[in-house]
Amino acid sequence: MATDSVSSPSPRPTLRERKKQRTREALIDTALNLFTQQDFDSVTLDELCDRVEVSKRTFFRTFASKEEVAMAPYEDMWKAFIDELETLPVAAECSILQVLQDAVLAAMRTMNTGDWAHRLLSCTRLAGRTPAIEAHCLYFCGVTVRAALDVLHRRFGLDPHDLRPRLALDILVAAFHRALEAWADRPQDPTVEHLATDTLAAFAAIPGSLTFTGVPPANRAG
Amino acid sequence: MATDSVSSPSPRPTLRERKKQRTREALIDTALNLFTQQDFDSVTLDELCDRVEVSKRTFFRTFASKEEVAMAPYEDMWKAFIDELETLPVAAECSILQVLQDAVLAAMRTMNTGDWAHRLLSCTRLAGRTPAIEAHCLYFCGVTVRAALDVLHRRFGLDPHDLRPRLALDILVAAFHRALEAWADRPQDPTVEHLATDTLAAFAAIPGSLTFTGVPPANRAG
DNA sequence: ACCACCTTGCCACTGAGTGGCGTTTGCTTT
DNA sequence: AAAGCAAACGCCACTCAGTGGCAAGGTGGT
């Protein structure tokens, strides 16, 4: 289920595994195409499975739901984020929020293979117009945030009742979603570096969101 | 669909409407009981509809999904929040985030009727252990945040590209969810005033979440 | 009392998701 | 290289959420 290409050197992860990965990617690719051309709800899983020549039973052994296949590229990035969070070296007086931001940036750069950026773009736009996918996405974020919270507690000794690390994570996710939104609205072909730029811009807007009054017409967002 | 008891004086909102409200509340009440005693997934809608003596068709005319009936009390509060946001008088140099916090507090106090608090408690605990409900809840929050953002733009003239108001809303929701979590863990009978206390505590933790380093063992959360 | 309309109940249907079981296919051991 | 093992797959039948259509009952207005 997880991409184990990162943590293990694995010169060749056994044929069986490769086949599994191949069907997984075929499913993702075909699903993204179908959902984009037609509509998420109007595409049936039978239709998708016919295209990929896979039984519906196999689909559900690979993905837990119809929504999951649509958000797989997005989810892969957050899994990489967890990995980064476990291994990232941290400067002593760095704020937790800063550490989290670094981990997100690092995670998205590990995804810079194949045309992950294009797939993520499809994900994002699908999530933007499909309630079921958006709901699933947000739930997944909740799970990821809890996992990340565990890592934080393990790496730094934190008070289990302190709300601040959890809030920092929620803010991180919220800001990243703003970045995705902006990135998906770009006219040009999307690249990981553009996404990094938009992400930094969203992060920069965080401090002001607590204090700004909105009465003066417009200060700068950063 | 919305509770129109707030906006209209309505001495008696016509018999037809009252009947509708009665079935709606019977469905919510019975659903909350069933989902709590048994399990959300193991309770079928046929079972629920049998208890309330209502056809499944009618259920879906009242609620859009099985998850929605479980989160109805929660959703009602956020609808009240939107109303508050439209009407709340605001001091001139008050930060937007402060306005939002006031609106949340005001909204939960308008809910202080019947045993809304108990129903909200059931909601919260259900959402905490049922993925499908949590997903629906988070999606609903997303919709509500967008609606609130519209109100903010209407009441204060905001730059449409400014990320800060949206981030402030996301932070608000995140903090409120922490408050709900703490509130649901209280041993005593839950009251709206306790919820208000926990909400204020969660709001107080927001500023620190941007800056704390986590290296010193434990500062105070507030 | 009448009519118009809103709401409900019933029926049939689609599609997601699950469990069971027999079969294929890749991996391993000798 | 053949046999044995385990993992993955395909097929079948099933449950249940959710939808559309249409007829019947209750409600509000005249």
From TrEMBL, chains A, B:
Q: Does the keyword Transcription regulation apply?
A: yes
Note down the stretches annotated as region Disordered: 1-21
| Pfam families according to UniProt | TetR_C_14, TetR_N
User: What Gene3D superfamilies would the database entry show?
Assistant: Homeodomain-like, Tetracycline Repressor, domain 2
Q: Which residues bind DNA?
A: 44-63
Q: Which InterPro entries match?
A: Homeodomain-like_sf (IPR009057), HTH-type_TetR-like_transc_reg (IPR050109), HTH_TetR (IPR001647), MftR_C (IPR041347)
Keyword annotations from UniProtKB, A to Z: DNA-binding, Transcription, Transcription regulation
Domain (HTH tetR-type): residue spans on this chain: 21-81
In alphabetical order, the GO MF annotations are: DNA-binding transcription factor activity; transcription cis-regulatory region binding
Record bears the keyword Protein transport: no
Q: What is this protein called?
A: DNA-binding transcriptional regulator, AcrR family
- Provide the species name: Lentzea jiangxiensis
